[in-house]
Every structure is written in C-alpha cells, then in structure tokens.
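Please check this record.
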Amino acid sequence: MQDYEESVAFLGTWGPFQRRVFILLSLTSIPCGYNILSVIFLLASPSHHCYIPTQSNLSQDWIEASIPVQEEAGKQERSSCSRYELDLVKNLSALGIGPGLEPVHNLSALASGPESVFSNLNQEGCKDGWTYSTEHYQSTVVTEFNLVCSDQWKQPLTSFVYFLGGLTGCLFSGQISDRFGRKPVLFGGIGMLSVFSCALAFAPSWPIFTVLFFMMGLGQIACYIVVFVLGSEILIGSTRVLFSNMALPIIYTTGMMVLPGTAYLVRNWRHLSLIMAVPGLACIPFWWLVPESPRWLLSRGRLLNAELLLRAAALENKVEAPKVIFLPSKGDEAASQKAKSLGFLDLLRTRNIRNMTLVQWLIWFSVSVSYFGLSFNMSSIYGSPFLNYFLLTVVELPAYTASWLAARSFPRRLSFISFTLLGALALLLIRSQSTVI
C-alpha cells in the first residue's frame, strides 16, 4: 500500500478540517493539565499544632505556652505533634500561676516564684486532634483526615498512588486504543477523569479517597497520551510538528496555570474537586466533532471507513478527492486484512529497538523525577503557594516555544543534549544556592 501521507496529500496541511482537529484536540488537553498536579493543593499540609479543648478553661497565654517550642532547620518553631501534659497545665493554671519565661526543673521550684515554663515537663501527643492554619487553605485532605504526625506517611503514599494510576494508564491506554480506537479511549479517559474527580468530593474516608485518586490518575494520563497520538496520526507535515511541539503542550500548560487561580478562590478541597471535573465535562460534546484516526482504521483493515472519513474531510476542505485514495500494492493484502497489532513486549524484542527503548525510558525517568521533584517542593518555598505554582507553570510557555523553534531549525539530538545540559546546570545552581543558605 502506498505511503499514508502521500495518499492524503490532496487534503493539504492546513484546511478547515485540519484546523478543526488541531483546535479541538488541543482543547481536550486542558482537563489533563488542569488535574495533573492537583495533588499539590488537595494534599497540602498547613502548619498545625495540638488542639487544646475549650472546656479546659485555659487562658490564651496558657494555651500558647502549652505547645513546646522546638528548633527546626535552625528556626524556633512550635511543635506540630506534641504538647505539655494537659492535666499538669490545668493544675498550674488552677493555682493562679501564669506562664513564665524562666525554666523550671521541678514542681517545688514553683514556690519560689510565680513564673514558669515547661522545658523539663513531660509531653504528650495530640490526644484531642490538631489546630490547622487557615492562612492559605480552609480545608485539605490532610486537615480533614488528619494525615499528620504518626499518620504523616499517608500523605506521600496518596501522591504515590495517584502517579501509580498514571503509570497504569501509560501501560494500558496504548494497548486499549490499539484495540478499540483512539477516539473512544480519549473520551473514556476524559470521562473517567471527570467522574472520579467529582467522586473525590464525596469521599468519606482516606482509603476511599486514595482508591478514587488512583482512578483519577489513570484517566488523566490516558487521555493525554491518546490525544497526542490521535493528533499526530491525523495531522501531517508541519501542522503535526506545530501540534505536538507547540499547541498541545501550551494549551496543556494553560490548564495547569488555571488551577492555582481556582485553588486560590476555592480554599475547600471538596469544592475544588468538584470544579476540577468541569473542564472534562465541557469536552464531552467534542465527541461529535473529533474524527477517528484514519491511520488506526487502516491498521485494522477498515479501508472503507478510512476512505469515507477522508472524503468527508475533502468536502470540508473544498478539494476533490481522488477516485481511489488508497492504492494497494501488487500482492499487498493489507487492504483486506487487519494488520498485525504490535504489543508492549515488541519494544524489547530486538536488540536495536530494545537499546533505543531503554535509553528513552532512562531519559524520560530522569526528566520526570526532576520536573515533579521541583513541583512538589514548591510548597516549601516562602510565599503564597498559589503564586509559586503559577510562576512554575508560566515558565513552561517560553520553554515549549524554544523547544519548537529548536525542532524546526536544529538536529533533534543536538537540541535535546543542549536543553538537558541547561536543565542540569540549573539544578546544580539550585543545589549550591540551597547549600549556601
């Protein structure tokens, strides 16, 4: 069979059909970008300390003095996970003694003066829960399910489960789209992302939240992978390069930029989860406007469906389609038989393909670790987490533009090595600066 791009050259590269596909597929990446790092806001851990019940009848001075002060990273901070024994504090308050500034080594020292501090008194855990700062968040998953102190390990585990869902989506979305088509998997992923984002808002416990978060991560990565493949298969020539290197990443990043603004306005994690479903639901009507991949139809031996799709595209572009679009070569039975579907293991079957695959995996792993490591550490930087996250995403816009220009003008290998070295240099500078501080 003749080359696919030669077969569809009569459509041109930038007609009304291509513009429609280009715009709609770019827009379908917004839900993916909007949700990718929602974990930063949903699982934010505000500053906190032990809760002192109101029925303790302690003055505000006593309540503040009941929380030990500890040195953390060279700074004096109030303890997040312990308090002085509340019964003893109440006894001291009942004696009419106010919290003092000088250390007391034993209770008999109280007779020598009214002032006291508790540096040598026994401490206990937060038996009555915690008080959380509401400076940035009204509530998060951490504050509602108390994922702090002895349960602090649940917070990173939840993030891990979310990305484990993404890994699962990476492994299976391609196989499923090869079997059932790009379009059903794309909109199935968007639907899954929206449905489970809504379901998060009603999670009654941390285990249920974690399961729903896994499914949300699966849908998020599945829809982005498939929209990339679908656009790359429908579009040809310079339009395809512009779509994959420029339009799709920039629209995706735009979705990421909208999230911190939403989180700033909506400080409650349940309300934020509901709003996160809106972009995906808004994309569902695109089902009737986005075509299936002609390349996939050909790979499944569905020549008639592929030709009907391309003839409809020719009418939309106002060009004349040839009488026969796909000309089978002599002895070629691909037009009447389904092409053999390659599987995941085929990437490791031959030595040459295996070496290239392993190198690509190593590169992608390194880039992902750096990217998400920096993203998750934004919460530790001074200032508003919403502004910090917004600035983190804005910087990607010139980066994608530079990548597109480099792909047009320079060899791929040279461009990749240059950008990788630039990123490594930036990480080394960050490391050296943090060491100095």
Notes: The chain has a mean pLDDT of 81. The first helix runs from residue 4 to 7. Residues 48-132 form one domain. The chain has two domains: 4-43+149-342, 48-132.
